[in-house]
Amino acid sequence: MACVGTSDDRVGEVLLNRVMQEQLEEVLYSEVLVAHPTETQEVESDQEQKMVLQLAVMIRTIGDAFKKDGKLDDAIDGMVGQMTSKTNYWKLVEKVFEDGQITWERIAVLFYVAGRIAVKVVIANLPQLVKAILKWTLEYFRSKLLDWIQKHGGWVNSFAALARVQVERMSSMRARSSGLILVFLGGVILGSVITWKLSRRT
């Protein structure tokens, strides 16, 4: 059974709050507070603070790759009007863990998705739902994920897995851009050969 109030629970809550707040600030809605500091747990040590800061950066990097895809935002746009209850919200959240498999990457994606949803409800003039989204995400985190996190060595063990995900995404992006460069260069070379052959005929 997951222990609420432990370091892993506290780091998870502070991290989720930070990820959501950062995304809201990116779209110039910084006046919308996710949670007032007195309503949420706070880190208890410099080590926890550093962990939260580093994990927030990793989550942002992983999430930004999904954001560029566009499919995530499209899916969220289609659900914004239905975000009025925890049941409906959890249905969306459970799509992150559709096959029942929990991984560090999926937990990172969940936190990022919560932030994206917060942004979307604010844009849709429903800022009152932001705190509900934080609350519902924390309830999901505590009931479905905290036990897994504790059994897998706590947040401190997430760094290696999340760093690997970042490297894989960067490699895949480089491979895609290398492929595009090769296609472009191939086109330039082919065009040059055709132009050269045509100029020799005249």
From TrEMBL:
UniProt entry tagged with the keyword Isomerase: no
Keywords: Apoptosis, Membrane, Transmembrane, Transmembrane helix
Alphabetical list of Gene3D superfamilies matching this protein: Blc2-like
Transmembrane spans: 179-199
InterPro entries, per the entry: Bcl-2-like_sf, Bcl-2_BH1-3, Bcl-2_fam, Bcl2-like
Domain of life of the organism encoding this protein: Eukaryota
GO biological process, one term: extrinsic apoptotic signaling pathway in absence of ligand
One Pfam family of this chain: Bcl-2
GO cellular component: mitochondrial outer membrane
GO MF term list: BH domain binding; channel activity
Coiled coil region boundaries: none
Ranges where the Bcl-2 Bcl-2 homology region 1-3 domain occurs: 59-155
UniProt similarity note: Belongs to the Bcl-2 family.
Name of the protein this chain belongs to: Bcl-2 Bcl-2 homology region 1-3 domain-containing protein
The organism of origin for this protein: Coregonus suidteri
Source species taxonomy: Eukaryota, Metazoa, Chordata, Craniata, Vertebrata
